[in-house]
Design a protein that fits this description.
By secondary structure, this protein is mostly helical. The chain has 2 domains: 44 residues; 41 residues. Helix content is 83%, strand content 0%. It has 3 helices and no strands. Helix 1 packs across helix 2.
Length: 86
C-alpha cells in the first residue's frame, strides 16, 4: 500500500470515524489495487474460464458431500445394528 492510497482513503472518511471503518476501507482499497495490478500484469481469466473452473470445484464439492452423507448413513446403520445385538 502506498501513502497516496492511504491519503485517498483518509480523505473520504468523515471527520469522526471508527478505527474499524478505516481498516475496512484500507483492506478494500488494497484488494482493489491488487486486482488492478493483476489486470495490468495480464493475470486475468475469461468469464467462460471462471465458469468452467467453478463448475469443476462445485462438482467435486457435491461428490464430497455425497460421500460424507453416505458415510454418516452407514455409521448410523452400524450403530443401530450393534445396539440391537447387545
Amino acid at each position: 500500500m502506498t501513502k497516496e492510497l492511504l491519503n485517498q482513503v483518509a480523505e473520504q472518511l468523515p471527520e469522526q470515524f471508527q478505527l474499524d471503518d478505516l481498516i475496512d476501507r484500507l483492506i478494500m482499497a488494497e484488494a482493489i489495487e491488487k486486482g488492478r495490478q493483476q489486470c495490468r500484469d495480464g493475470r486475468v481469466r475469461t468469464h467462460a474460464e471462471v465458469k468452467k473452473r467453478l463448475k469443476k470445484v462445485m462438482s467435486a464439492e457435491d461428490e464430497e458431500l455425497a460421500f460424507r452423507e453416505a458415510t454418516l448413513r452407514n455409521n448410523r446403520r452400524f450403530r443401530i445394528a450393534n445396539a440391537q445385538t447387545e
